[in-house]
Each structure stands twice: as C-alpha cells, then as structure tokens.
Amino acid sequence: MSDRLELIHRVISDIVGAINIARVYPKGHLEVLRVQNRLYDSLISALDTHEEINFIFLNQMVYFEKLPVIGNKGVIQAFYTIFYGRGIERLTFLKGLQKYELENFFEEAYADKSSGIKSKDHIKIGRIIPQQDLGMSVTKKQWATQTMASVYSNARKNEELQVMDVNRVAIELIKTFNKMSDPFKYLVDIKTEDEYTYIHMVNVALLTMKLASKIGFSGQILVDIVFAALMHDIGKVMIPEEILKKPGSLDDIEMEIMRTHPVLGAKYLLLHRNLPQITIVAALEHHIKYNGEGYPQLQPGWQPHIISQMISVCDVYDALRSNRPYHAAMFGEEINKRLNMESGSSFNPMLVKNLIQLLSVSED
Ligand SMILES: [Fe+2]
Ligand SMILES: [Fe+2]
C-alpha cells in the first residue's frame, strides 16, 4: 500500500474512531481531543502534497480518488454509514483546513441524525451531481483487479482465501458489466508476468459471465459461475515462480509441475467453507477437454461439468488474446478459427458458437 493510501486508511479509521468515542465520552473529554488532534495531523499531512482529499459514498462503497477503498471492512462500512446515512455522498477536505472547522464538523457529526452536517470553508459535503461520471466501469474493473491481486497474494502467503472479497467482485462484475453488449473492451492486457494470473482471472470471469448469461444462466447461479471463473487458476499460487514466469516454453518436468495446478487449486478450495461447490469442480476440471482428454486424467469417459466447459473455452480465449512468453497475442478471426478447429474435441460446439457470436457483436 502506498504511503498516501496508508494515511487515508488512518484518516478513515480516526474519523470513525472520533465519532464512536464522542458517543461514549462527554464533550471536551481528553480522549475525544486526542483522537481529533491525531486526525487533524493526519489530514494536514495528507493535504501537504495534495489540494484536497475527496471521498465519495456510493453503492455501499467508499471511493477515494475515484477508486474504491478496500481494507478493514468494518471500519469502511461504519465510515460509509455515518455519512451516507445522513444523505452525504461526497466529503472533501481542502488545503488550509483549520482545527476549529474540524471541531465544528465533529460536533455536528456527533449530534442526532436529524441535525445536519454543514459545509465549512475547508470541509465540503454534498451530493454527487448525477452527470459527474466516475468512469464507473473502468473503476470497477480496476477495483476488481486490485481485489483479486490481494486475494491472490494472500493465498500465495498460505493465508485463508478471502471468500467474501471474491464474492463481492463476482457480484460487482455482474452489476456493472452484464448489461453491456461489449464489456470485452474492458479485458485488460497484461504488462508483466507478475500480474498475469490475477488479471487473467478477472478477464476469464468477465467472458464467462457473458457466455453464461447468453445461454440462460442468471441470479445466484450466475454469481456462483463468476466466482468459480475468478478462482479457476487459484492452484497457480502453489506453482514455483520460476515456472510461472519462465520467459519461454516449459520443459517436460516444468510442464508436469504446471499441470498440477488444477488438483492443487481444488484441494486448496476444499479447505474453505462458504464457497460455491462448483468452484472446486471448475478448478479441477478446467483443463479437461470436452472429449475427456487434457488433465488431470480422471475416470475414462469423464465429461466436465457445463460450467467447467464454459470456463475452459473462455480461459483459452483469454490466453490466446494475451501476449505470452510462448506465443504472440492473436486477434479476432485468428482466435475464432482456432476455437472452431477445436470445436467438438477440446470445446463444446454450442459454447464455441455462442462465444464467437458474443465477440462478433462486440467488434461491430
Ligand atoms: Fe489453468
Ligand atoms: Fe486459466
């Protein structure tokens, strides 16, 4: 986390802390003053290099500099409720902030919900002008990628999977992108091998979401499908970095190791409760082909679940369109040709047909 972002997290927790403390201690109590003073110092340092600190409260989320703030959910939720609950959607602290303004602001904030908080010279509150575009789609995609980066790096550190965060990403992706005819313009190109896996997870989730809704999935099952797509490659957290990031083709042994990621992923997911069961199935099966070939080898004649089949075709689509150490990025027709060639063997023909239809709409 950058220093500035860390400072902003401190500002948020001090605002929440100051309000909670003032509900317990009388006005002017030393503890109240202590937290207020600390908050004032944090705000002044944050305003040292910037003209303003701007928070937006919208859709159950707090945005800072147009990006959703993620971190301590309890504190962020409390921060959201304090202001949004009073009809405030925007809170801005401006350079030049005076201590007495902050004190007045808190006095109003401590009071009942009925009495309002008013803007000051250097503290502005208000509603968001409807036309003010937050660039919501871009922002949501960035936020999703950022959240998945943190989920991925925590899993790499052998920590527990942040199930709630993945679920939130799944829901937000559906809310933001499912109605768009061409959300594919939000597929992100990778710049470094470091970011490949989690960017790929979000891209595959976006593609799978559209494919699944095109063939009729909706509601909770759609959320579960997107969740499963986000997690399909989670087993890669257990693959050594030298193999994951190797610039060039893998040798036989490295390939064998790489091919353990579906089983490793399924085993890791099995350790967690509260996740859709299909997630485990899809992590295990996403490299098994429609005709039962591929890996891992299960019982003869094994046919992957339809959801694994969807993730599989979207997985290959995103891999082909990305620049990888072992192949250059392919484009439109070239990818379609490849998918059609393997339709009926690697992929379910009905899914190939629907995916190509979806993508041709987006290219118009
Ligand atoms: Fe995979
Ligand atoms: Fe993948």
In short:
With 364 residues, this protein is of the alpha+beta class.
Largest sheet: 5 strands, antiparallel
Oligomer: single chain
First and last CA, distance: 40 Å
Question: For this structure, what is the CATH homologous superfamily of the largest domain?
Answer: Hypothetical protein af1432
- Count of helical regions: 15
Strands, count = 5
CATH topology of the largest domain: Hypothetical protein af1432
Major sheet: arrangement of strands: 3-2-1-4-5
Number of domains: 2
Heteromolecules bound: fe (ii) ion
Strand content: 5-15%
Report the order of strands and helices.
HHEEEHEHEHHHHHHHHHHH
Q: Output the radius of gyration.
A: 24 Å
From the spread of the alpha carbons, the general shape counts as: elongated
Summing up helix and strand content along with how strands pair, one would put the structural category as alpha+beta
Uncertain ranges = 130-134
Q: Percentage of helical residues?
A: 55-70%
Give the averaged pLDDT, no decimals.
86
